[in-house]
Amino acid sequence: MDIGLNNLNPKLKIIGAMVLAFTFSFIKSIELLPVIFFISLVIYYLSKLPLSLLLKRWIIPAPFVILMGLFMMFFSEGQTVLTIGYLSIKKEGIYWALTIITKFLSILTIMVTLFQTTHFIDIVRALNSLGVPAILTDIIIFTYRYIFEIGKQLNKMQISMRLRGFRNRGLKNIISLVSLVGTILVRSYEQSEKVYNAMILRGYGHKESVKQDLKLCKSDILGVFIVVAISIGLITVQIGLSWGGF
Amino acid sequence: MHIPDGILPVAVCASGYGLTGLATWYSLKKIKEKEDPRKEIPKASLGTAAFFVASWISIPIPPASVHLVLTGLLGILLGYYAFPAVLISLFFQAVMFQHGGLTTLGVNAIILGLPAILAHYTYTIGKKFLYKNNLKYGILGFIIGSLSIGISVILFYTIVITFIPANIDVNAEKIASLAFVISHIPLMIIEGIFTAFVLIYLKKVKPEMLEAK
């Protein structure tokens, strides 16, 4: 039986990823932080994705989380462990910084695994079959299609502006930037009318556009069982640690 | 103004999803009251994509630069589609660029989406009285643009500082709040000016886009 993540049912993958992400958010005890980090790395390893990809994804949002961590380390109330000039690092601050950084990396790893092992259109279909209204899933699909097209338009317009001597000097050039954004909005508005007419001619609106029945197999059920077992286990241990029962 | 995963307690993330579900339900209810709800879907999608792309434009404000958020303009142009548009934009930002997070998607949608809904209502009322005069219309745009960011900043800061898991020193908290608010004043002003000029531009070039949805 193949339990490779790439072949699992997208609907169950979304449920599994969200269950794990919320379970990781629930964790507060420092003893469990290495456990959730290890679980997320094992799941990423099972996806057979390259490590370099994960590292790239970790780097993008890292500055905000590191800043939050530093703020907590220096400005939390508690026992001082080190003094640097006017600032002092607190024991409790280190604990909280470690907690948010580990939780952030673990949840991000789970989400990267989900979105890198599932085709985007399958995720949208799965969201629809999980009850997300068709209007929303339709907008998601069309937006995904148009982001790249409008992005190209913006790029072309910015190149043309530079070739005509435009230099972005902030508020001094605000009128040019307003025209740039205004033109993008007007073009997209005009395009939307043509798109709608073309869609109607092709039968849009006569049936649910993305709804699809996603069948389950044994590996899906095993996958869900493992995720639910891990989550129940982690939540039970966390509650036990919070009450001092372990 | 995107809160990443792992910072907020699970109850806050779940409440964020609950409130976002409610706001989305309300928006969809209003959309479905229209004669042909699907007619506006391509417009809303292209609008969402255009706003997503417009947020890539940065304006240099020495020593840093700011990128546009444009939630006020989004509320004006997309009406009841504005909240779903914000939600979808944030979903894409979390998935494509890891800005924000999926457990915090609901909270982030409230931070940026509620001002968009308020912008829609403010515009619908204000337009009746101020549309004819360009200066007054521009002032309405400025107020909507800058207040949308102001409300988002207040919501973001209140949520982060209230639900941050650590006990932060009171003095440090005061300094951080002051620094945070001051650092966002330029963005509020720029968003206000930008929204005002875009409204006047659209009034001249494509006035039908400004009919409240």
From TrEMBL, chain A:
Entry membrane topology: Multi-pass membrane protein
Superkingdom of the source species: Bacteria
Annotated TM spans: 14-46, 58-75, 95-115, 127-147, 221-241
InterPro entries assigned to the protein according to its UniProt record, in alphabetical order: ABC/ECF_trnsptr_transmembrane (IPR003339), ECF_CbiQ (IPR012809), ECF_transporter_component (IPR051611)
Principal location: membrane
Alphabetically ordered keywords of this record: Cell membrane, Membrane, Transmembrane, Transmembrane helix
Location within or outside the cell: Cell membrane
GO cellular component, one term: ATP-binding cassette (ABC) transporter complex
GO biological process, one term: cobalt ion transport
Pfam families assigned to the protein according to its UniProt record, in alphabetical order: CbiQ (PF02361)
Protein name listed in UniProt: Cobalt ECF transporter T component CbiQ
UniProtKB/TrEMBL annotation, chain B:
Locations listed in the record: Cell membrane
Membrane topology: Multi-pass membrane protein
GO cellular component, one term: plasma membrane
InterPro entries, A to Z: CbiM/NikMN (IPR002751)
Keyword annotations of the record: Cell membrane, Membrane, Transmembrane, Transmembrane helix, Transport
Gene Ontology BP terms: transition metal ion transport
Membrane-spanning ranges: 6-28, 65-92, 104-125, 137-164, 176-202
Protein name listed in UniProt: Cobalamin biosynthesis protein CbiM
Source organism of the structure: Thermohalobacter berrensis
